[in-house]
Amino acid sequence: MIRFKLPSFLTPPVFSDTEKDFSVRLMYGIMLACLAVALSYRILHPILAEKPKAIYIAAYLIPVAVLVCHLIAKTGRILLAAHVMIGIEWLATFGIMFREGATQTVVFPFSLVLILISALLLGTRAVYFYATLSVSLAVLSEYLIQKGIIQPVESPTGPWSVLMGEISAFILVAILMRYTLLGFTKVKKELSDVQRYAKLGGWSLNTATLELTLTKEYQFLLGDSDALESIVVSFSSFLNTYVVEEDKTKLLTVLAESLTHKEDPNYTVEFIYQIRRIDGKNLFLSVKGRFLNSFIAYGTAQDITEKYLAEEALRPTQEIYSKVFTLSPISTTISTVEEGRYIEVNDSFVNLFGYTREESIGRTSTELNIWPDPNVRKEYLERLIREKILLDQELILQSKDGRAIHAECYSMFAEINGKLCVINLVKDISEKKEAEALRRLNKEISDQKGLIEKQKQDLEEILQNLKKTQSQLIVSEKMAALGQLVAGIAHEINNPIGVIKAANDSIQNYFEHSTDRLSRHSDLIQSLDISVLKELFAFMNKGKRLQEMISPKEARSKIKALEAKLKEFKIENSHSVAQDLVESGLEDALHEFPKLFSAEHVQILLNFAMEEIQASKSSRLIDMSVNRTSKVVFALRKFSHFGSEGIKTSVILSENLETVLTIYQNQLKTGVEIRKNYDDVPPIQGYADDLIHVWTNLIYNAVQAMSFKGILGITLKRSGANEVEVIVSDSGPGIPFAVQDRIFEPFFTTKAQGEGSGLGLDIARRIIETHGGSIRFETSASGTKFFVTLPIA
């Protein structure tokens, strides 16, 4: 068992790390040299010269150092082993020098050689320490000998003893140099092989003489596979011999530029150029370099031909894909799989969501608040991971300004530059959804029946005419505004229809029972006292004439008080009767018509009278609703007509403005307070339809700027003797200073994508200028005012 383990124990450790392996070789060389010296002095010296001196007992420490060093090295701790070996061997030389005297023995030079070689293992600080210690000890020992404090052993007088000392020193140096050079050679060869495998070569340049030194690995790149050492060539010779014609100027430019920075140690240069090898083959080299000092520049060159040609082959395809990505009308992004951070976004993404590329790259859709509901994103991502690809997914996303975006999304995984990514395509279908909603509303309007059939047909005709002119740029802007109004118009028409239907049902019910009512009440009415009959007719006439409406709170208070009084008159259903009386404006009827309420059959008379009053109220409601619907349709017809051809007509600006306010009534009635101040101004000569478009744009811009909540001001007044001025103001945040000069530019808009074409104010300005007028604005943090001046004649 011991026989088989002994060779393994004696074998030095082997490491794949070249630096560590070299250290092991050097350390074991030192160990072998020290052991050889010790053996020669303990075995050969007594045989060939005289008996050993007593002082040589200290040499036994050398084998001990070798053994301990070997045991530690087997564990892999090479640096600790080297420290232990050098330390113990120095103690041995310390004993010998202190007994014999430093200059009378080979131990002192042995110590210095040992320390010198150990520098390769322990570093410069260890060398300084041991060298200083050894020299100090040598000086001290000689000083003590001179003083007679120590008595050195007599120096050997035999020639064999001197010869043995010299041979031992020679053996020591030879062994150490062999292992040192062997280690250096191995490291150098391995480094050269690695450089050749990596197709890498080194170079240096003398900036004064422009002489270029090329390593043998660099020569290998140039086609000289037999190169054994570095060569020196002039830069011009290298340029003419190896550099292709089209890259010579490039290298000269790089050299000239670099020489201006030769005093800067941090300056680096990196470029690619093409060489022609000795065998005629062309290579592309990637060169990196820097300055060692103002006289020497150095660096490397690596063969990147395969990579360079592959990239060049892919470049047209990459450019095509890049252009398709950038110019795609569909919002396209590339993001990481792990965190979902955007790697790249195209222009359509920027336009759709309102974030710049700088704001988007490196951030996630969650950080940009693109997903109104994070749970929807989580579910979408889980489905993508599960199904690998998602198509035609309709989602609600959000732009930077909070605008909701109806989106059709496509997502899939793709490997880009060796990394798995997610490609996302987002198609804005908001206009499609709005069109679908508009079609639904149009269908609802077309399905309405009753008294406004004629008005509905007129509206459909108007919409059809607008669709036919949709391709014209100016009319397209008008159509966009009309599309925003359709929902409000439908509401304004549907409400009167409902009122008419309910009122009509009430009147129909009244007439269906009129014969029965007359037969039941005719005898009673004829039998009434003339004074009671007069009060009954007066009661009915007053109820029919009521026009004023009171608030629900006030009505409840009056009903409660009247109900108590009716109970005193023994009126049945006193609460219901009190409610009908208050709603008809007859809450004081008990005082105004005392004889009526004192009559014998007052309950029957009240029921008869209230039925008459209710029928009259229903008739008035139908009349009011028809007038309201007619007004809306009339305003819509005026709004939908557009054109400035023909002869100017007389335009009453107050009516012109009221037409627009009627159209926008539904959007304005909830959160916008309208403050109108119309002076009595004469009519102007102009195109009424064009001016309606101007007021539409200014008013809608104003309420949009306030987010449909605030104060809208409209002022109409004289401005001098021959002009009138219309002022449209809002209480919004004002127009940013940076864009004020561009407000009237065509296609410029401060609104989010899809909310405006940027043509509204440009068209308005042109219309006003066609009328010979002018438009300007004033803005601040408290709101914006637009001033439109028009000539009277």
TrEMBL record:
Name the UniProt record assigns to this protein? histidine kinase
- Organism phylogeny: Bacteria, Pseudomonadati, Spirochaetota, Spirochaetia, Leptospirales
TM regions (residue ranges): 26-44, 56-73, 79-98, 105-122, 157-179
Any idea which GO molecular function terms this record carries? phosphorelay sensor kinase activity
Per UniProt, residues of the Histidine kinase domain are: 588-793
Query: Which reaction does this chain catalyze?
Result: ATP + protein L-histidine = ADP + protein N-phospho-L-histidine
Q: Which organism is it from?
A: Leptospira adleri
Keywords on this record? Coiled coil, Kinase, Membrane, Phosphoprotein, Transferase, Transmembrane, Transmembrane helix
Q: What is its EC number?
A: 2.7.13.3
Q: Known Pfam families for this protein?
A: HATPase_c, PAS_9
Q: Which residues form a coiled coil?
A: 438-472
Enzyme class, top EC level, equals transferase
Domain PAS, chain residue ranges per copy:
338-388
Spell out the InterPro entries in the cross-references.
HATPase_C_sf, HATPase_dom, His_kinase_dom, HisK_dim/P_dom, HisK_dim/P_sf, PAS, PAS-like_dom_sf, Sensor_kinase/Photoreceptor
Under PANTHER family, the record lists: PAC DOMAIN-CONTAINING PROTEIN, PHYTOCHROME-LIKE PROTEIN CPH1
